[in-house]
Amino acid sequence: MTITLDDHIRVWNYSSVKVMDIRLAVLEPGERVQRYQLPAHSFIYVLDGHAQVRLDQSQYNMSRFHILHGGRGAFIDIVAEDRLEYYLILYKAVMMLPTSHPLLKHHGVDSSFRYQYAFVPGHPASLLLKLDDMYENWTTPDMLHQFQARTLFYQFVHALLLQMKQQGIEPVAPDLLSQVLHYMQEHYMEPITLKSLAELFDCSVSYLTKLFKSRLNDSPIRLLAKVRVQEAAKILARRGASLQEIAEIVGYPDAHTLSRSFKKVYGITPAQYRAAVSQTGNLIPDMPKLRTRSALVVTEPQCYSFNDYDSHLYLSGGLSMVKTSRSSSIATAALLLCFTLILSACAGGSTAPPTAASGKGTVSESGTGQQKQASTSEATISATQTYTDSKGTITIPAHPERIVDLTGSAIGNLLALGVKPVAATYDAMRSPYHKGMLEGIVNLGEGSNAEAILNLEPDLIITYDYLEDTQYEALSQIAPG
Predict the structure, then answer these.
(1) What Rg, from alpha-carbon coordinates, does the chain have?
(2) How far apart are CA 474 and CA 481, in angstroms?
(3) Is 26 helix (H, G, I), strand (E, B) or coil?
(4) How far apart (Å, rounded) are the C-alpha atoms in residues 379 and 377?
(5) pLDDT at 452
(6) Phi (first) and psi of residue 50, to 5 degrees
(7) Of 186, 193, 246, 269, which cross-links 466 as Cys (Cβ 3.0–4.6 Å)?
(8) Cα separations (Å) of 269 from 28, 80, 241?
């Protein structure tokens, strides 16, 4: 069920509105605004000229006096067929009603400002006079004039809604699903969450989830993972980048997370995929595709500058890259349990009984304190425990002292726990977040040199479980479990 114009007018009456920007723009013949995502709710009023305009899935042939409204998050394409001059008004609106208000029970009112409409007003001169006055006041560097522009905006909206009512124009609900899918295609490399998507498109998390489930039988985040993995597959096929570098490019925090998602979509690991493409020269089909991308075009970002102090939130869609803090690194230390741990037999000797793990080996009562300490230390060194992962069950030292980290991304977890490995890969060593903490750690490059690892005499090697069997066997020869 969609809202009517009367519902839309009621929403305007109960909302707090803030003008974000008023701009006068010109496009020369053949110029275009391509794949621009509206950073706020917007009006476009054509002063002169002619253009083909696409707003999400709707196509419009716009000329003089034509007016168009689109909501925040909508994608717009404009191709000027001759010199095009138009006003762009960007605004923010928030409903100011208690959650118990009857109006909020009407389906769709919470997203009323995202509704779309385009038409030629029956009396365009009255709207144009208000727009000219609004623009003149808005561009005057005086707060009182800009306040006047905001009051004129209400008059403009009133005149517009009145003419819509007289002409029988009804607002049309946008295709929210299409908008979100387009956004994923454009911003998959950013740290998108379900909550941030809902906020960006002015809907609730539950509504967005139900929409994806009903129309695509999947969740937004799982579809986002498919988009990211498909992009990762393209990079794997044509670049020599490491898996950690690819993970960062497509929006994953580390190589392990990318590998897990990749295997769910393609059924094989990234390393297996790259090897297969290298042998055949062809991309391997993945599981059923999310959607055809024929309607998507390469974008050239074209942004409008705002006067408002907080407008950057809307230009960027309210999303930003977030560094992992030390506290979050400690919280994610449990992820180390997901790694494949390989034990080195450099020290040799039999496994100590369970009592040795707690330092309670047999010690003579008449021995000195130094003898007791030595016995306890030896028991601690020889203590072991078993660990089970996808490769099987292995024996690992309870207190490893010479750790080689081949993950490329988990070194932060080790450092947060006060554990400093003797060696790590290039990806770990170049991280700016560990500056000043890596002195004395050997740089193993890609970590593929088995001889270099052997010379370090490790008692524990940490890597991910997506290793090829041949790589795993090679490391097992260095560190049999």
Answers:
(1) 31
(2) 13
(3) strand
(4) 5
(5) 83
(6) -150, 140
(7) 269
(8) 50, 47, 15
> What pLDDT sits at residue 95?
84
Check residue 350 and report its DSSP letter.
Answer: P
Q: Which of 16, 19, 15 is nearest to 308 (CA)?
A: 19
CA distance linking residue 476 with residue 481, whole number of Å: 7
pLDDT at 402: 87
CB 237 within 8 A of CB 266: no
What integer pLDDT is reported at residue 44 of this predicted model?
96
β-strand pairing of 117-119 with 67-70? antiparallel
| AA letter at 317 | G
What would the two tokens of residue 378 be?
Answer: 């030896």
Q: Please give the pLDDT value at position 462.
A: 84
Regions of the chain where pLDDT drops below 50: 287-369, 371-372, 374, 376, 480-481
One DSSP character per residue, 189-253 reads TS---HHHHHHHTTS-HHHHHHHHHHHHSS-HHHHHHHHHHHHHHHHHHH----HHHHHHHHT-S
pLDDT the model gives residue 278:
79
Record the tokens describing residue 19, joined without a space.
């003008």
Three-state SS for 144? helix
Q: How far apart are CA 450 and CA 458, in angstroms?
A: 12
The token pair that represents 278 in the structure block: 């290298």
Q: Quick one: pLDDT at residue 378?
A: 52
Q: Which residues pair with 68 in a beta bridge?
A: 44, 118
257, containing H or E segment: helix 255-266
Asked if 283 and 266 touch (Cβ cutoff 8 Å), the reply is no
Strand partners, 462: 341, 405
Residues 6+ apart with CB under 8 A from 3: 11, 106, 107, 108, 109, 112, 115, 171, 173
- Tokens representing 345 are 């037999």
**Tokens at 276, concatenated:** 């297969």
CA dihedral 246, 252, 257, 259 (to 10 degrees): -30
